[in-house]
Design brief:
By secondary structure, this protein is of the alpha+beta class. The chain is 22% helix and 18% strand.
Length: 309
């Protein structure tokens, strides 16, 4: 599932290409992606048609486009969701679910459109952007879109989600204190979106490896300095992933221009089962964790005594 870096890359792309545009038309090609919108597919389209996008924001793994109406288009990519900027007229993607027409007239310079050659031969004159549209493509359809009434500043549907660690208003001291009061394992706490948002399985494993902490270490058994160091490594991993466009293990995660990230080449723990640890050479181990997998070095990240078999 896309985590903070991947969603932030998509948000930044939307900010560059969509902010300032008016949604000239909205076409829902499959009802499932808008299943959480009480208006239904037709009401979803009607609430968005003609509205201007005024910003692109994110909290954790959610993104939203504030509109001139005070509402917002709220989205989650799920396992395979993609927000793609495409020239009008190129063939539809196989798993295209929702199409948004983008009207750039009256907003010169508001959007910079990437020109790409296509088999459809869409013309592109110098200095004049070709007509474009925003497409929501989702193969597995675990993602979704909805109109958040009055949600331009912060959609109420995600108000319960904590700030993420690269948010300037993230409260380090409060996070450290809350972690040290909890008896759950530290990896489970890193995945708690009510405590810290945006961190998923991949980046939790990477930050824990850098901190030499086993994911089962209870929060209340960690020293303050250990939690502070871990938080620093979480930020480091996220910033490095952002700089490399996120992590793409397959073609399901891409940015708005259809390009994959390549942070997977820098992973030290996640997905490295059997490979030598970059610090000590011990083979990286994989164990089951919350219907997923955890990867760690059994020597550098010793399991807590209570968890040893």
């Amino acid at each position: 599932m896309p985590e903070l870096p991947e969603v932030e890359v998509v948000r930044a792309g939307l900010e560059r290409h969509v902010v300032g545009a008016r949604l000239s038309a909205v076409e829902v090609l499959h009802p499932r992606p808008v299943r959480r919108d009480p208006r239904g597919p037709s009401g979803f389209a009607a609430a968005l048609t003609g509205r201007q996008v005024v910003a692109a924001r994110r909290r954790g793994k959610y993104f939203w486009l504030p509109l001139d109406s005070g509402d917002a288009l709220l989205g989650h990519l799920g396992m395979s969701g993609q927000m793609l900027i495409q020239p009008v007229g190129i063939p539809d993607e196989r798993h295209l679910r929702v199409r948004f027409g983008l009207d750039l007239s009256g907003f010169p310079g508001a959007c910079r459109v990437v020109q790409r050659p296509t088999s459809a031969g869409i013309p592109g004159r110098p200095g004049i952007p070709a007509p474009t549209e925003l497409r929501f493509v989702d193969q597995r359809m675990f993602g979704g879109l909805m109109v958040s009434a009055g949600g331009a500043e912060l959609p109420p549907e995600i108000a319960h989600i904590a700030r993420d660690p690269i948010d300037p208003e993230f409260d380090d001291d409060a996070f450290v204190a809350r972690v040290r009061r909890r008896t759950a394992g530290i990896k489970r706490l890193l995945l708690d979106q009510g405590l810290i948002s945006g961190v998923g399985n991949i980046y939790a494993d990477e930050a824990l490896w850098r901190s030499r902490l086993h994911g089962d270490r209870p929060g209340d058994r960690l020293r303050r300095g250990q939690v502070v160091e871990l938080l620093g490594h979480v930020r480091g991993v996220l910033h490095e992933a952002l700089a490399q466009g996120g992590t793409s293990f397959d073609a399901l995660y891409v940015n708005v221009n259809g390009e994959s990230g390549y942070f997977d080449r820098s992973l030290a723990a996640y997905g490295q089962e059997g490979e030598p640890c970059g610090r000590c050479g011990t083979p990286i181990r994989r164990i089951a964790f919350m219907n997923r997998s955890s990867y760690f070095c059994p020597r550098c990240q010793a399991a807590p005594r209570a968890s040893k078999r």
